[in-house]
Amino acid sequence: MASAIQWNACSQMPLTYKIDDGIVHVAVSGLIEAEQQMAFTREWLADPALPYPIRVLRDARREVLPEVGMLEMRDSIRLAKNLPNRGAIAFVVGDEMIRANARVYQALVGAHHDVGIFDDPAEARHWLLETELH
What are the beta bridge partners of residue 9? Predict the structure, then answer.
């Protein structure tokens, strides 16, 4: 059963999301600063249509990373660790820098949430739908 599709976008940010079939599809395009990322994440976490458990497909194939250190990632990691329920996030990556950042996130958040890294969006979606979350 397909759920209603809901498109949203933060103003002036290269980030969009839609909620479809129990998955939050996040699309990233261009340069993302840590403050933008946190504001955007808080927006979709507050969406009344947010499914539980949370399953996120983050398509980062068009993302451009600023020089990000652990301090910049700290708030995002803290937010993920403090979510009340276990969730799953699938990163779809396009280059090795994005893959490396996704691996760091996976290592730091993996005890709290399932994190997968993929090259193909269809494979990532399949993994999200098949992942058992408790």
Answer: 16
**50 within 8 A of 18, measured Cβ to Cβ:** no
Q: Given the DSSP bridges, would you call strands 23-31 and 15-20 parallel, antiparallel or unpaired? A: antiparallel
Average pLDDT across the chain, whole number = 82
In angstroms, the CA 90 to CA 128 distance is 7
Q: Which has the closest alpha carbon to 58: 75, 41, 73? A: 41
Classify strands 55-64 and 23-31 as parallel, antiparallel or unpaired: parallel
Please tell me the pTM assigned to this model: 0.81
DSSP single-letter state for residue 73 = H
How would residue 105 be classed by pLDDT, with cut points 50, 70 and 90?
confident
- Given a contact cutoff of 8 angstroms between Cβ atoms, the answer to whether 84 and 55 are in contact is no
